[in-house]
Specification:
It contains five helices and six strands; from the N terminus they run H-E-E-E-H-H-E-E-E-H-H. The longest helix has about 40 residues. The radius of gyration is 29 Å and the shape is elongated. It starts with 10 loop residues before the first helix and ends in a 12-residue tail after the last helix.
Amino acid sequence: IKIFFFKQKTAYEIGVRLVGSEMCIRDSMETLQVNRKKIEKLSTVLNNSRIKIFEYLVDEDTLVVYNNKFHIEKTIAGYMDYIDNKSKIHPEDREKIKQIYKEAKEATVEIREFGEDGDIKHSVLEFTKIVNEDGKLTLIGSTRDITEQRKQEKKLKERARKDSLTGLYNQVYGKKCINKYLNRKKPFDSCGMIVL
């Protein structure tokens, strides 16, 4: 708070300004506390849903990753080179993700990444394009880990293929396998098949 003393001002006028400034500060503190509570709530949601927020600065080729409290977790300059050389993104998905960054387009894409233990992790990335106050193009995005969801889907597909009592492949899946084999087989090759 800056207090300027002029010879013309009375003590009453100075006191009113100080009280007004104090009320202003108190209001700002209350607003700040409300905003902190909102950030804490949002942080909890992001944490529980395993969502990470990031932004890609197109002109600077820089990726900024935020933690769940919206503080910068890491900054990666030269991100296009990073994708090719140091990224954990699966090699088959790298070109797809680089294309989105290069074109700076809004999109939703699923990618695979190598986890710490070498397992493949599935993630969904969602991008939104914005122009900053200074006129620079930025992609704001979120990434969500869907590995558990993919594992559950795989288990359900496997259950749908097998008979629950015997554990053998069911009739529908058996027919698919036979048709697949017959379509791959050369017409005049000999083959044998047992159908129960």
